[in-house]
Amino acid sequence: xxxxxxxxxxxxxxxxxxxxxxxxxxxxxxxxxxxxxxxxxxxxxxxxxxxxxxxxxxxxxxxxxxxxxxxxxxxxxxxxxxxxxxxxxxxxxxxxxxxxxxxxxxxxxxxxxxxxxxxxxxxxxxxxxxxxxxxxxxxxxxxxxxxxxxxxxxxxxxxxxxxxxxxxxxxxxxxxxxxxxxxxxxxxxxxxxxxxxxxxxxxxxxxxxxxxxxxxxxxxxxxxxxxxxxxxxxxxxxxxxxxxxxxxxxxxxxxxxxxxxxxxxxxxxxxxxxxxxxxxxxxxxxxxxxxxxxxxxxxxxxxxxxxxxxxxxxxxxxxxxxxxxxxxxxxxxxxxxxxxxxxxxxxxxxxxxxxxxxxxxxxxxxxxxxxxxxxxxxxxxxxxxxxxxxxxxxxxxxxxxxxxxxxxxxxxxxxxxxxxxxxxxxxxxxxxxxxxxxxxxxxxxxxxxxxxxxxxxxxxxxxxxxxxxxxxxxxxxxxxxxxxxxxxxxxxxxxxxxxxxxxxxxxxxxxxxxxxxxxxxxxxxxxxxxxxxxxxxxxxxxxxxxxxxxxxxxxxxxxxxxxxxxxxxxxxxxxxxxxxxxxxxxxxxxxxxxxxxxxxxxxxxxxxxxxxxxxxxxxxxxxxxxxxxxxxxxxxxxxxxxxxxxxxxxxxxxxxxxxxxxxxxxxxxxxxxxxxxxxxxxxxxxxxxxxxxxx
Length: 695
Known about the structure:
Layout: E1 2-6, H1 14-21, H2 30-34, E2 40-44, H3 60-69, H4 73-83, H5 88-110, H6 136-146, H7 183-187, E3 197-203, H8 209-226, E4 234-238, H9 241-259, H10 264-273, E5 274-278, H11 279-286, H12 290-302, E6 305-308, H13 313-316, H14 324-334, E7 339-344, H15 348-358, E8 366-369, E9 376-382, H16 387-392, E10 399-403, H17 407-417, E11 421-424, H18 433-436, E12 443-444, E13 447-448, E14 452-455, E15 470-475, H19 480-487, E16 499-504, H20 517-536, H21 539-546, H22 551-561, E17 564-567, E18 571-574, H23 576-593, H24 598-605, E19 615-616, H25 620-628, H26 636-644, H27 659-666, E20 671-677, E21 688-694
């Protein structure tokens, strides 16, 4: 029987507080409100003695229901599992129900998703691949035709020195080069004996993390499957539709390389052992109804190994996706009876998060290969108002990719470059997705199709450009994690495949710290945070906030928050990961803006080391003029006019900068302007002149 009952506002016990909130501030409205279960919760009346029922995550969600309602179904469930294990016939029935669940999921994925507001970086929930289990006779036949049956290969024991422990979570990578360059070389066959629990692959871009999963792990799982061992299926989770599609292509390419033809039997086998879904799909199932819970249960029961690819997703996307905590909580619970592998090139904040929420990671289960940037031959800081000029002066035939913050930035660039450039943003950008979300017109087979590609962070995760023509990478972003991800998009093919990197210097914006571009991002973060802050402050403060403006305005602010949401069915729902991320970003942004030297702040928070200085970008024609006029007294208005005529220094509201403003810009040229007064008895006596001198 299924009933609906009003969900009361209940207090949280300490155990639940610690699991869901860690050290963050909890909402005053109780766990029921946080889970989004108000005003109703659904309770399924299950007779454990009549039917053997299995719940996902060891009955974890059933336990939460008991906590909320004072019931004891979780205890009864555990006792029933112990007293009534599944028979062989029931196990077979269980397998058949798995097929039915997967088929239902296939149908669910074919249906359009409900309309919802989503921020630009939020990814589309993708479908789960069809899983068709070959019959035993088919397996036997395949085993005979593909390869001869043989004993399981001996497990390669990886020497102790091959495992590079993290030590303190978040610590810097060792300066020396490791003996192994790629994940497969470092890990060897040790993964075959990992067992249940957490594994971290803290490895830079281009280190073969995905290749290790698709080729080595999945290849081994196929071999085991053909020998009758069906317990090593892999569930791979990724953050973006674009990456999901790429992984699917790579999975099929690996199958074709192994089997040599396009046989459906072989393809079904590869789909059987390796399933690819998005975090968003997992979150949809976690928060869904009884049917979704059943599908989730079957999905987890089918797969012993779970790969959390690009797992910095929880540290980067939580400010834009209200549901990210569902997938994190699910995988932390899955660690009890699954091997859960977390992979990222920029996982510093995520490793800390995992430790806070799920306890420390065993050092012997942490593998590290730091990112190297030998392909970066030079690095510069540039002023945003010079971006177009620099791009138009690039040598012919040399391609550039430009990572920007917002869809509005793409529209601004399109007005200037038109069809000569390509533009890409997330398919969930409500304003620009119709114009800029077609990836096929931007990149094909790793090759950038036009000389200049403007993109948002939607392309900054997981996608690699294997294009010798890409010689310039411009990063107009401010967030250190996004900057590191964007920097890693170029995959160098050899020692000669190099590029130049340009980072935006926000201190070259007019009125640094006041009217700079960072002020805009600070305002956006505060607008996200304020509704959630009021909610977490308690019922009284939240009521004040709800009545601080008309209801439509308040609801619009909550909708834009993306870390707090409200609807008439579920009430208020807050994402603690989003709160944590926004608080962290606000604190970091205030610290950066309080500095008088942006490059120093940039390096303070940088998640990479180029092993070379980042120089200020110089324009050769201006540099030549400055050094040709050293130590020559000049009227201040004349010098200002000459320097400004090059067009490299920005005016503010039509006003030209004074001596201090000019010197701020000229600092990178190694010169500065000083004032001097004419003392000779002539028509210029007591007149002030400017003089350029070397610093």
